[in-house]
Amino acid sequence: MFGCSSFEGVDPACYQDAFAFLAENYRAPDALIPRKRSAETFDLPKGHPFDKKRAIAQLPPLLRTYLSLGGWVSDHAVVDRNLNTLHVLTALEIAAIQKLGRVLCARWFDLDACAAAASCVADANGAHSTTPTQ
Predict the structure, then answer these.
(1) What is the C-alpha to C-alpha distance for residues 83 and 76, in angstroms, rounded to an integer?
(2) How far is 95 from 114, CA to CA, in rounded Å?
């Protein structure tokens, strides 16, 4: 799954801690970094010091959620003056969400109920036709 996370405003200096934190901890694998196509971009600052608490506070809430599920971001951001935002490509592998879901389900609920729910979802998606037991 991919899209972009937007930071309000067009001044990267307002989010220097967040961008340095992202570059240091959540940069995409080299093979998956998109090329720069916009006329106005800036590189996320690798190797710059940052205040972790301030960096996390500067992140948009949805981006924090994606990162907590194993998401990653590009190595640059796009300046969008028309929308008054800075956009960072954000991606999350669906398999990571499913794996995390199974772990959380096992922690919070009965393991048999989790297996039945997974079978039901897989059946709804046409993966197989196992009927969950009650």
Answers:
(1) 18
(2) 17
Q: The pTM is what? A: 0.72
Question: How many Å apart are CA 113 and CA 106, to the nearest integer?
Answer: 9
Total domain count for the chain?
Answer: 2
What 3-state DSSP class applies to 89? strand
pLDDT for 119 beyond 70: no
CA dist list (Å): 49 to 13, 72, 95, 115: 13, 20, 32, 45
- Only one residue has tokens 């969400």, namely 97
Mark whether 6 and 62 lie in a shared domain: yes
Q: Which residue has the tokens 């997974």?
A: 118
> Are 86 and 111 members of one domain?
no
pLDDT in tens, 8-48: 999 999 999 999 999 999 999 888 888 899 999 999 999 99
